[in-house]
TrEMBL record:
Protein name, UniProt field: DUF2157 domain-containing protein
Keyword Membrane: yes
Stretches that traverse the bilayer: 39-60, 66-83, 95-118, 138-158, 165-182, 188-207, 212-230, 236-255, 267-290, 336-356, 362-382
Domain DUF2157 span(s) in chain numbering: 9-139
Keywords, comma-separated and alphabetical: Membrane, Transmembrane, Transmembrane helix
């Protein structure tokens, strides 16, 4: 009835003719009508499910061990079956039933582990849930499975601690890289990229070398991913690299400003120099392959700026990089939101951590005002030059 009413209104407004309206109406009449569960039936099913689960919980201890596992498996297949017919017959919410079925799969594993006294630490439980969730994602391609997969991927990483082996770490990298490579949307691609970045922190437990620079090494290692993905995907994940590079610089700046003892000693000079050399390679690679990501090479100098003699250089690099990013982004007509937030955060860290106890309040605000005026003047000058060129 709503379709007919709309079509009549469109005919009266002379938006469509009578023949077009008849064809639209005939097409809509042949479409399957969604079937909705009656409200009372839905409420009854909910109460029935609660009654069943309450009965099971009340008699859980008296149920035989093997029956507990079989019961969880039966519930899992029951929900998957309901989800199948829900999608086939167009009633209910297939996604909800599949998610509950996935939860029942996890409950089956947990029940088996508790029943037969399998260890939960460093077990296959998080692995199984991670792989099963990714299988759900690649089959149905829904955001919910990306969120659940990200959770269990992080759980797998945490389960590595305190013991971690190269085999487990390599398998996790392979699975997560497959998720990253074959994902098509931003959310799953971002989640898998974050897990790959987080896996670099596991090197603290794998390698017998104490270093505070593992996050930067990990970021540079992830640059290799840009060589195996198409250009459209490079543009999609570009903010991840820029955000991570800026966040690393801010975090190291804040930690160095709050720490009164050296967080890196003289024995790490070789590593700091090596990191700077690799940063140069990343800069050259970015220049020729993906020029908009050249900024990710900036954290490579952090290693050289963590020593007591060079600590002030870290604040200078953070300040200059923030200003340069804003000016270049303004000149190239790019979005300034990300750069402006980064600039404000850098100012906050430098003023609050580095200069709060060294400057009086008037000088504090004076320097901040001068910096903002300089930035505004530079932006005005660039815009004036552009208008001059256009005219």
């Amino acid at each position: 009835m709503d379709t007919e009413r709309k079509l009549k209104q469109w005919q009266q407004a002379e938006l469509i003719d009578h023949a077009t309206a008849e064809r639209i109406l005939a097409f809509e009449k042949h479409q399957p009508v969604p079937k909705k569960l009656p409200l009372l039936l839905l409420i009854g099913l909910i109460f029935f499910a609660l009654a069943v689960f309450s009965f099971i919980a009340a008699n859980w201890q008296s149920i035989p061990d093997i029956a507990k596992v079989l019961l969880m498996l039966t519930l899992m297949w029951l929900f998957y079956t309901v989800a199948y017919f829900s999608g086939k017959k167009n009633f209910g919410y297939p996604l909800l039933f599949r998610v509950i079925g996935l939860a029942m799969f996890g409950a089956s594993l947990l029940t088996a582990a508790q029943t037969f006294h399998f260890p939960l630490a460093n077990s296959v439980l998080p692995w199984a849930m991670y792989i099963a969730t990714l299988a759900h994602y690649f089959y149905w391609r829904h955001l919910v499975y990306s969120l659940v997969g990200f959770y269990f991927g992080g759980y797998v990483l945490v389960s590595f601690l305190p013991n971690i082996g190269w085999v487990e770490w390599g398998i996790f990298i392979a699975i997560t890289f497959g998720w990253f490579y074959f994902s098509k949307n931003f959310a799953p691609t971002a989640f898998s990229w974050i897990l790959l970045f987080a896996s670099g922190f596991m090197l603290w437990g794998l390698v017998e070398y104490d270093s505070v620079l593992w996050p930067i090494w990990t970021l540079f290692a992830l640059v290799l991913l840009l060589l195996v993905i198409p250009s459209d995907k490079q543009q999609m994940i570009r903010p991840l690299y820029l955000l991570t590079a800026g966040l690393l610089l801010v975090v190291y700046l804040a930690v160095r400003g709050q720490t009164f003892i050296s967080i890196i000693d003289e024995s790490h000079w070789a590593e700091a120099i090596a990191l700077a050399i690799v940063a140069g390679g990343v800069l050259l690679l970015s220049y020729f392959k993906f020029r908009s990501l050249m900024w990710i090479a900036v954290p490579g100098v952090i290693g050289l700026l963590l020593f007591d003699e060079t600590a002030i250089g870290l604040a200078i690099v953070a300040e200059l990089s923030a200003l340069a990013y804003l000016m270049i982004a303004q000149r190239q007509n790019e979005k300034l939101g990300l750069g402006f937030v980064y600039f404000i955060v850098v100012q906050f860290v430098i003023y609050i951590i580095y200069a709060w106890e060294r400057l009086d309040m008037s000088l504090f605000f004076l320097i901040g005002a001068i910096l903002l005026f300089l930035l505004s003047g530079a932006a005005w000058w660039i815009n004036r030059r552009k208008e001059g060129v256009k005219s």
